[in-house]
Amino acid sequence: MSDLKRDGRSSGRNSLLEMVMNCLGTIREWLEDATVTDIMINRPDDVWVQQGGKKFCSGAKISAAQIEAAITLLASNSGIQVSNESADAIVSTKLPGFRVEATLPPVAVDGPTIAFRRNNMVVKAMSDWVEQGALPQEVADVLADTVRRRLGVAIVGGTGSGKTTFANTLLGCFPPDDRIITIEQVPELVVKSPNNVRLQINPQLKVTAKRLLESVLRQNPDRIVLGEARGAEANDLLQAANTGHEGPLVTLHANNGAEGLNRFEDMVAQSADAPDSREGIQARIASAFQVMVFMKLVGDDRIVAEVVKVDGFDRQSKEYKTTLIYRSSRYETFDVPMLGGDQGELARAA
């Protein structure tokens, strides 16, 4: 593609963002504020904002007509005409700096809705997390060494817990001569290695994460990074990791480390090529991923709440063999299940 075409497409997207902001004039200030991560229009005259980890009602006044006009513009970005009588009453799209989800009545019961989520392009050094008290230096050193040694790492946590930000930190620890290929729904990962390829899932073109993973295996990657595992592609990632492509990095939504493993199992099971038994899936996960990092939003702070080493899978007991490397004292007050296993030296010292 020529630079002229690229520039034209980028300019068009920026113009679209400007037109959307003009439609939603009363919330422009929030869209332009880089400290705001989410703007959520629940219905006319009901706009919520998330800033610094806290959600609050903005008090902004906005009409149904304004919201619907903005949704019509957003739909044009996806090449569709919105209708409240079809599946196109739901619009999923991207704008410069944002991913956007919108719904129209009757799908949206109380009026049209739009949710803006700001893309997370923040890159923190490991030392930044340590200085902010998100994890101790000893654990930071262990994690940096983990990715340098090409061990598989899964970062789990809830929405807004810092998974992508921490993934970018770990990406910064990869050896500089690694050929890294990333797969994402929305481009948020920042790869410092000069030898890299960034791939994006595209539902409109029917390009899925699974299809991209199949392609990646033929592109000679040293490291494969999946921005977020959501379904059957998790099995393709495991197959890649267990057939010579060591050291994968993946993020997934889960409320704790134990749930992260369970969710991963469920996603693998969705694949037609998955092992027949649950134990087979668990053994494959334990072989591919040696470290689980659980991120947690505590107050306004995003912390590394747990680091668990996965030592294997015991088919007799049907349990993962794990070692707790670290658990934050700020996390101990939460009544949540914890992965079993022995405690490592850092865990006892934390």
From TrEMBL:
InterPro entries: P-loop_NTPase, T2SS/T4SS_dom, T4SS_GSP_E_ATPase. It comes from the Bacteria. It holds the Pfam family T2SSE. Belongs to the GSP E family. This is Flp pilus assembly complex ATPase component TadA. Transmembrane segments: none annotated. Residues 27-298 form the Bacterial type II secretion system protein E domain. Signal peptide: none annotated.
